[in-house]
Design a protein that fits this description.
By secondary structure, the protein is mainly alpha-helical. It has one domain. Helix content is 82%, strand content 0%. The protein has nine helices and no strands. The longest helix is centred in the last third of the chain and has 30 residues. It is globular and about 50 Å long. The C terminus is likely disordered.
Length: 280
């Protein structure tokens, strides 16, 4: 089992429960996340095929339920402020990640993608999709009225839109891929910086500030690595093989924003703004 094979199960049994606690998923969902995640994690002890895929199916069904909850909230709130839209998008991205996880464990290769690309797509939507969007939403809540600032809005839209755009670029166009990689990387780094800035204003406490400091440091490392890799791939001069680069980038994401960052948000416990306005 490679490091990359460990990063995916980590998202299922550690990152997802942290994110769902912040997302306000139903109490039943917060209980079911553990058995569903453990079954999907166990699938990595089996070779790709029907058994591994069957173990991952409960996770996809669970993530689809999370997406349903997010969509219902979206309809009730008529989009709401941008940070809440980020939260709903993250809940939807979790289901997309769950779908690609089943494909990966089954060994399917849609559009002729290599096995590692299928797995990386699943990982991408769990980390850059779900975890980053939840973190973005919580950062907006911590900023309160400052979440209407152009800086936060630009960063939030980059996280919300950059995730599917990067996946599209990998499938269709290197130009789209490189633009999306830079857009998403810049957005995540800005959000991490804004979370740290908000905590240093005394809104979150020392514990949260420490977590956000760790998250910001790892985020700069991981997103800088992703942007540099996108450029090297476009130039045809890869500086690291895909599995190794993805493992290092994924490890930095897992330990930084997706663990330290989400724990910081749990400590801070930001609440939604009481009034909802449609994002422009």
């Amino acid at each position: 089992m490679t490091l990359l094979d460990l990063i995916a199960p980590y998202a299922l049994v550690v990152v997802a429960p942290l994110g769902l606690a912040l997302a306000g998923a139903s109490p039943l969902s917060r209980k079911l996340v553990y058995p569903a995640g453990l079954l999907a994690a166990a699938s990595f002890f089996f070779d790709q095929g029907r058994v591994a895929a069957l173990l991952a199916v409960p996770w996809f069904l669970f993530s689809a339920e999370i997406a349903r909850q997010g969509c219902l909230r979206l309809l009730r709130r008529a989009l709401g402020p941008l940070e809440e839209l980020a939260l709903h998008a993250g809940m939807l991205y979790l289901a997309i990640g769950g779908f690609w996880l089943v494909l990966s464990r089954l060994g399917e290769r849609p559009l002729g993608f290599r096995d590692e690309i299928i797995l990386l797509t699943a990982i991408h939507f769990h980390y850059a999709g779900f975890a980053a969007c939840v973190f973005t939403a919580m950062t907006g809540r911590m900023l309160r009225d400052q979440a209407e600032s152009p800086l936060y809005r630009a960063a939030a839209w980059a996280v919300i839109g950059g995730t599917p755009m990067l996946a599209t670029g990998i499938a269709l166009s290197r130009w789209i891929e490189i633009v999306a990689a830079f857009w998403l990387a810049l957005g995540v780094v800005l959000v991490a910086g804004l979370a740290l800035f908000s905590s240093l204003l005394g809104r979150s406490g020392i514990g949260a500030s420490l977590c956000f400091s760790i998250a910001a440091a790892f985020t700069v490392l991981s997103m800088g690595m992703a942007a540099a890799y996108a450029v090297s791939e476009f130039q045809g001069a890869l500086w690291l093989p895909i599995p190794r680069m993805a493992a290092l980038h994924g490890l930095a994401n897992a330990l930084g924003l997706s663990t330290a960052g989400l724990i910081g948000c749990i400590i801070a416990r930001p609440v939604p703004r009481e009034t909802f306005t449609s994002p422009s």
